[in-house]
Amino acid sequence: MSGSPEVANDQKAIVFLCHRPLLSQIGFYDRFADLGYRVDVVVDDPGWDGALSAGVRIIRHPDERCHAAGFHHFNPAVRKSLHCSAWDKALFHLSHNASPSRHCWLIEDDVFLADPATLLKLDLANPEADLLVGSARTVLHQSEAIGGESGWPWFQGVPVGRLPLPWAHGMVCAMRISQRMIAAVAAFVQQHSAALERRNAFRRRAAAVGARLRLPQSLVERIGREHYPFIEFIFHTLALHNGYQVSVAEELSGILWRHDWRVEEMRPDHLYHPVKAIADHPRLRAQLLLQHPEC
After folding, report:
1. 170 and 247 in contact (C-beta within 8 Å)?
2. Which residues have C-beta within 8 Å of that of residue 294, sequence separation ≥ 6?
3. Per residue in 108-151, pLDDT tens?
4. Phi, psi (5° rounding) for residue 271?
5. Could you give the strand order of the β-sheet that contains 112-113, starting from the edge strand earlier in sequence?
6. Per the domain annotation, does 6 fall within a domain?
């Protein structure tokens, strides 16, 4: 990746996380540059050979480079040999290569957004937030993490010795983070990633031995349970520990884990996840903006 000159610290920035972006996606992302955003598109598939655009910068980082720098397992739901997803590459990019900006949006490719001006409005309404998200929940005690209404299976992956209670979590498929939030994540990686990887490797070996000894499967799974800086708790929890400002925006309330979104329930000034049919996004935008001309 070619270098870029330093920019003013108040420049607006967006990083879109993609596997294989479509031409229509690149064209839509180009519109954010017209609003003054620096737009980077992280492409996870090394075989992608799509069209470039004057308004966006395509970012490609090999899995090996990110893993060697400690950026892996941020999204363990993505099954890859080195556990380096687009999230790991985006965070590596922001920590090592990106020109500084006061805040940066990170948005997955299956997030639907009708109007680029929505982000600009959110930025103007939330100038100080270190973490701008659609949901946030805090857990103060271990019992809350394993049962009751706050029970959430991903808490099993929290590296307790390196990320002690209290914890917090929420969906981050579309979110905005500050420069000092990026620095906090980079510091966590620098301090703990190597030790976590050694411990996880030991757990994998121990689980393999347990399987050969025909131990109960539930025990094998518990022995082999890995710990990682999962995106859905690492940002919220680091912000909580550092006393950083977390703001929850109504416009991001449509960022959910699973939902079958219908255009009739959507607004053009909100973001929605998941909308997996990415090729349909242009049609949905046109339909939504036509139905809500007042927005």
Report:
1. no
2. none
3. 999 999 999 999 999 999 999 999 999 999 998 877 776 545 56
4. -110, 150
5. 112-113, 271-273, 254-255
6. no
Name the residue among 14, 52, 6 with its Cα closest to residue 36: 14
For residue 229, the tally of other CB atoms under 10 A from its CB is 29
Give 185-197 as a DSSP string: HHHHHHHHHHHHH
Residue 3 lies in a domain: no
Residues 220/207, Cβ–Cβ less than 8 Å: yes
* 64 falls within a domain: yes
**Residues with pLDDT less than 50, the chain:** 1-9, 148
Peptide bond into 216 cis (omega under 30): no
CATH number at residue 102: 3.90.550
Q: Which domain holds residue 277?
A: 12-290
User: How many domains is the chain built from?
Assistant: 1
> How far is residue 205's CA from residue 222's CA, in Å, rounded to a whole number?
13
pTM: 0.91
- Please state, in angstroms and rounded to a whole number, the distance separating the CA atoms of residues 116 and 113: 7
Q: Are the beta carbons of 99 and 6 closer than 8 angstroms?
A: yes
75 close to 46: Cβ distance less than 8 angstroms: no
Task: Count H helices and E strands in the chain, helices first.
Answer: 9, 12
What are the pLDDT digits (tens) for 179-199? 999 999 999 999 999 999 999
Instruction: With beta carbons less than 8 A apart as the criterion, state whether 113 and 95 touch.
Output: no
Cross-strand pairs, 16: 41, 107
Does 1 reside within a domain? no
